[in-house]
Amino acid sequence: MEDQIQPLDNMEVSEDSEAIRHLKEAIAQGKHWYIALLEAIGLWDKTEETYNGRHYRYLIANEAFDWLLLAERLLQEVGHLVLEDEIIDLIFCGKAPIAVSTEEFRQFIGEAKYNAHLNYFYGIIVEEALLLAVEEKVRKEQNVYALDGNHITELAYEQIYDATMTALLRRFKQEKGYPQRKSMELTECKEFTYWLFKYRLNNCDRERVASDTKRGLYELERQWGFAAQKRLR
After folding, report:
1. What are residue 55's DSSP bridge partners?
2. C-alpha separations of 64 from 59, 60, 81, 118 in Å
3. Exposure of 227 in the CB half-sphere (CA atoms within 13 A)
């Protein structure tokens, strides 16, 4: 990943950056916007930036690449050229407007970014879905849907990680040198989720890791299927 994305000291990215220029020119020349977008992502060389008052951090823990966040940022440059429904389907449902094979996707964004994208997918997206699935399981087991949400979460964490969220969050912040405050920014939440993923890999047996990952993938497919149904209504 280091050969593709370099640090940025919270500066604005210029309008004539290579990636943005390529995106605009490629679409203007008739290339499908999604292909042009993936190519632009391949040209992108920053891990984070502040743009239009919003801070974007594309690389979590120096390992996990949030390509959809970068896609959201880049599409702001050409949103008037792309159907709004297609942008929503991509950013919120992960649904591409045209079929692109895994190998083509890898070639467009580059090997390093692709590997880091897999880290993000399994380490953050699937891990979040796993937690939601287990929380739902706990609710059904307790048979009390009015049970305090924090209590549900603590029980779910114990089932997945053999430790409470409170204990794991404290350990995470101690390791990272973060202040022990209750609130966390979105980026810090993502970093915690990725830390949980690695914690699970290192502290659970392989069979359990595989089973929990499958559960997370199933939940993610269910969520995306539900989102797609809502879009059709």
Report:
1. 50
2. 5, 5, 29, 7
3. 15
pTM to 2 decimal places: 0.85
Residues 6+ apart with CB under 8 A from 33: 27, 78, 81, 82, 86, 97
Contacts of 197 (CB under 8 A, 6+ apart): 122, 123, 124, 127
Binned average pLDDT, 10 residues per bin, the chain of 233 residues = 41 62 96 98 93 93 96 94 93 91 97 97 97 91 65 92 94 92 88 97 95 95 66 46
Check residue 223 and give its pLDDT: 83
* 12: amino acid identity, one letter: E
Q: Provide the 10 A C-beta neighbour count for residue 206.
A: 8
Chain-centroid distance of CA 176 in Å reads: 20
Task: List the beta bridge partners of residue 59.
Answer: 65
**51, containing H or E segment:** strand 48-51
Chain centroid, CA 107 distance in Å:
20
Residue carrying structure tokens 């979460």: 153
Name the one residue in this structure whose structure tokens are 């849907």.
Answer: 145
For residue 117 the two structure tokens come to 């994208």
Structure tokens at 6: 């370099």
Q: Which two tokens stand for residue 62?
A: 């120096």
Query: What does the alpha-carbon distance between residue 64 and residue 58 come to, in Å, rounded to a whole number?
Result: 8
φ, ψ (nearest 5 deg) of residue 60: -100, 130
